[in-house]
Design a protein that fits this description.
- This is Glyoxalase.
- It comes from Microbacterium algeriense.
- InterPro entries: Glyas_Bleomycin-R_OHBP_Dase (IPR029068).
- With 209 residues, the chain is an alpha/beta fold.
- It has one domain: 2,3-Dihydroxybiphenyl 1,2-Dioxygenase, domain 1 (Roll).
- The protein has an eight-stranded mixed β-sheet with strand order 5-6-7-4-8-11-10-9. A five-stranded mixed β-sheet has the order 2-1-13-15-14. A two-stranded antiparallel sheet has the order 3-12.
- Strand 1, helix 1 and strand 2 form a beta-alpha-beta unit.
- Helix 1 runs antiparallel to helix 2.
- The chain is globular, with a radius of gyration of 16 Å.
């Protein structure tokens, strides 16, 4: 792994690895950035994180949302315009919540299922404490808005990282904030084996020749 890569990939705990792989290939086509593991860890309600796919234009938002729904996702927030752009939110069959969005207001090309950036947003009970945890371990802060939001500078990483106040993240996703049990996600990256203040688990990335 390039040492400039903060997050190499994400492992989702799913009930059926083959079904999950099939869904994500058909819906988003993210390749080896997503990995899957069969796990029976109990969880209920909001898992405390969302995944965002940032794209270049509204037509790509709609193409990806339509592909996800066609593959079996459930719409939480239909695609709609807002002050900041265009976006929609879906829930995958395994329970993960995905927000597909663009800051562009108009289309400039034919629709494509092209993803410019993947961003993992972690819900934090105390954003300042969680920011300190990551900053002390060498992940620099890119932008910070007090106790509500942090965007880290993840360099050349294929997956971005941010913190959002837990209740605010749930509201943005369109789901109740209550949840319990496993987050059902493992972050594979530069921290190696670690657990952050909100219980999110990091794991080392296997180095291949």
């Amino acid at each position: 792994m390039d040492m400039n890569t903060t997050i190499d990939s994400l492992t989702l705990d799913v009930p059926d690895v083959d079904a999950a792989r099939s869904f994500y290939t058909e819906a988003f086509g993210l390749g080896d950035r997503l990995r899957f593991r069969t796990a029976d860890a109990a969880t209920a309600g909001f898992r405390g994180y969302t995944l965002s796919l940032v794209v270049s234009q509204p037509a790509n938002v709609r193409a990806l949302v339509d592909a996800a729904v066609g593959a079996g996702a459930t719409v939480i927030k239909p695609v709609a315009k807002s002050l900041w752009g265009v976006g929609g939110t879906v829930q995958a069959p395994d329970g993960a919540i995905w927000k597909i969005a663009t800051s562009a207001k108009k289309d400039s090309a034919p629709p494509r299922r092209a993803v410019d950036e993947i961003v993992l947003l972690l819900g934090a009970d105390d954003v300042v404490a969680s920011k300190t945890f990551y900053a002390e371990r060498g992940i620099p802060v890119g932008k910070s808005f007090g106790r509500s939001y942090v965007q880290f500078d993840t360099g050349a990483s294929p997956i971005g990282l941010g913190l959002y106040r837990h209740a605010s993240l749930a509201k943005d996703a369109g789901v109740p904030a209550e949840g319990s049990g496993s987050h059902r996600i493992t972050i594979n990256g530069v921290l190696g084996a670690a657990v952050d203040p909100d219980g999110f688990v990091w794991a080392p990335v296997a180095v291949t020749a």
